[in-house]
């Protein structure tokens, strides 16, 4: 069984690759830049292609049993509009299963996948604990974090758990046609997350709350497209209940509880020192 993982150099994608390899599967990854795949485990096959240009995917999909698919593409992480073309190519290549990692809203990829003959599973993590690594430099250099919406809770999930759920959906039974909201075991505000990092470091850290306008400008300067800027502002400023509602998905799918934020901090503490 051979699986193609898109977004394999991203936060969750690396864990999808690792979990599939642990299950004895053959893994091929899709990347626009082969150099970015240099840190992936030995034995992983690298294919060059671009989800925004479906014609580049034919060779990558050849011989693939299951596909882990992103819903964004390009340097600005815009929602992919090429879902129908990607799904058509996957079905033509003989792909049987697909796990779809959403980007906070349903779009053309999900619509195409759910209308297809593929055995699909959609994963809806609310936010990755790994995004906290964006705080590492300001914590090290200034002992502070500058963020908006400091008191809005979010059921952040360890990206390793997301990767494990995706791998199980691709290799296990009983997941076809399922939409999984994947969360951690608790909803935490940015202030609470910073407090957890401070406790693990044993030092005081300051939380400086940005206005929404300041946050939007910062996201634009980071190269995010306006669509994603709007999504981030909405999701973090006025989130739907799904953003802070803890689910049992990880435990139900994997048979173990999800990892806590304190566990994630402990494993990544060196990044904040």
TrEMBL record:
Coiled coil: none annotated. InterPro entries: Ergot_Alk_Oxidoreductase, NAD(P)-bd_dom, NAD(P)-bd_dom_sf. SUPFAM superfamilies: NAD(P)-binding Rossmann-fold domains (SSF51735). It comes from the Bacteria. Residues 7-100 form the NAD(P)-binding domain. PANTHER family: PRESTALK A DIFFERENTIATION PROTEIN A (PTHR43162:SF1), PTHR43162. This is NAD(P)H-binding protein. It comes from Micromonospora globbae.
């Amino acid at each position: 069984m051979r699986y193609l993982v898109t977004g394999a150099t991203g936060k969750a994608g690396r864990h999808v690759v690792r979990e599939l390899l642990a299950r004895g599967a053959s893994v091929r990854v899709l990347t626009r830049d082969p150099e970015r795949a240099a840190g992936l485990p030995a034995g992983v096959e690298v294919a060059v292609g671009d989800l925004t240009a479906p014609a580049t995917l034919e060779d990558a999909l050849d011989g693939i049993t299951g596909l882990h698919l992103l819903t964004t593409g390009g340097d600005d992480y815009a929602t992919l509009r090429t879902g129908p073309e990607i799904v058509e190519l996957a079905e033509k290549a003989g792909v049987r299963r697909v796990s779809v990692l959403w980007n906070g809203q349903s779009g053309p990829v999900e619509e195409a996948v759910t209308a297809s003959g593929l055995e699909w599973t959609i994963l809806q993590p609310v936010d990755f604990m790994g995004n906290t690594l964006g705080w590492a430099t300001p914590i090290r250099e200034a002992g502070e974090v500058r963020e908006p919406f400091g008191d809005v809770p979010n059921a952040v999930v360890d990206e390793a758990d997301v990767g494990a759920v995706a791998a199980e959906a691709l290799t296990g039974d009983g997941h076809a046609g399922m939409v999984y909201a994947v969360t951690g075991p608790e909803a935490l505000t940015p202030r609470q997350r910073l407090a957890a990092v401070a406790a693990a470091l044993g030092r005081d850290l300051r939380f400086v709350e940005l206005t929404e306008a300041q946050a939007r400008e910062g996201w634009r300067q980071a190269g995010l497209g306006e669509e994603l800027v709007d999504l981030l502002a909405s999701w973090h400023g006025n989130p739907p209940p799904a953003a802070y509602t803890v689910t049992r998905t990880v435990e139900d799918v994997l048979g173990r509880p999800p990892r806590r934020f304190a566990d994630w901090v402990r494993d990544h503490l060196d990044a904040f020192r």
